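Service request form, structural biology core

Requester: graduate student, group of Dr. S.
Request type: structure prediction, single chain
Budget code: on file
Notes: please return the result as structure tokens.

Sequence provided:
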Amino acid sequence: MSIVDRQAAEALIQEQLISTIQQEAPKQSVFMALAKKLPNMTSNQTRVPVVNMLPEAYWVEGDIGYIPASSQSWDNVYLTAEELAVIVPVPNAVISDASFDILGEVQPKIMEAIGKCVDGAIIFGAGRPANWPVDIITRARQAGNNVASGANPNYYDLLMGDNGVISKVEQSGHMVTGAISAMTMRAKLRGLKGTDGHPIFVTSMQGATSYGLDGAPMYFPDNGSFDPSVAELIVGNFGQAVYAIRQDITVKILDQGVIQDHVTKAIKYNLAQQDMIALRVTFRMGWALPNPATRLDTGRTTCPFAYLEPATPVTTQTVTYTVKDNADTPVAVEGATVDVSGARVKTSVTGVATLALRPGSYAVKISKRGYHPVTESLTVTDAAVSKEITLVPNG
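Core staff response, request fulfilled:
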């Protein structure tokens, strides 16, 4: 007997459409969650006064001995606002026919992308705007706060021991307030115990986060910003890093104008003529790592962050500055500060300062009290760079 089976009625049977899209919740910026937020910027640049030199006190010999003089000085650290933005064009016909709010689905993922860019630029230097200071990894490396993991790593010593990553931060006069790491590091940390047998990588239902490392909250960024080829784990005093927002995330719907390719400048879409709209999202912020002078770091050359390098460290180029005065027979200037976009190093008795930098563009200032400062730009490609600088005394 013939029946109306599934095959005969297939054209009348509709698939069920679930009213939610299967996806992860949008991830946020880890740096902005941990760093210190300053008041919103009122212009494209904010100046933060920073203690550059501390006064000293001296014992006085005898009842009528002379009291030595001392001084204190300040420096300026600048937060420069840079813009993150994106445009997402969508045909109106697609919006009308879709069963979901397309723009409502896209917007949270753009916020997630902004968080990824912020973390990548500030922590690793990925896509760093030229006017921003160098990233946290570069600052830590220049201060000698990079710890090599090697071929057969002992993670307890690398993290907790003398000259381990936590010790590196403490040597600069700071306490570790947080740690961030690649997801792949979790397996290496499980079961890691202190000398008394207690686990140093623990979970806690009462803490600020689900995990802690030696008492400091630990985070595993999952917004795609953490680069395990550069660092396996980063620890530091995140309260020493500051940021400020110039323009909070702004969303605008465009229905007029053209969309050009950002590289070739060729017109890709004409919104009015092609009956399209575009979602434009913009965000502006600046950040800095002021690193004021302390009794443990009067020269401001340390860094409140340290990191664990992978077995194969990222390639850097050696940049050498040789600083002399303008005498007829030039003399090396010892103790001059070479500031490369925030990474500071002092010249030796021979007037030489050496840095390890990745390819990129940097703003450099060479200065010493009693001399006119020298500013210049530096470009690092795939080879070592040597520079000779002449400082002219004041007056």
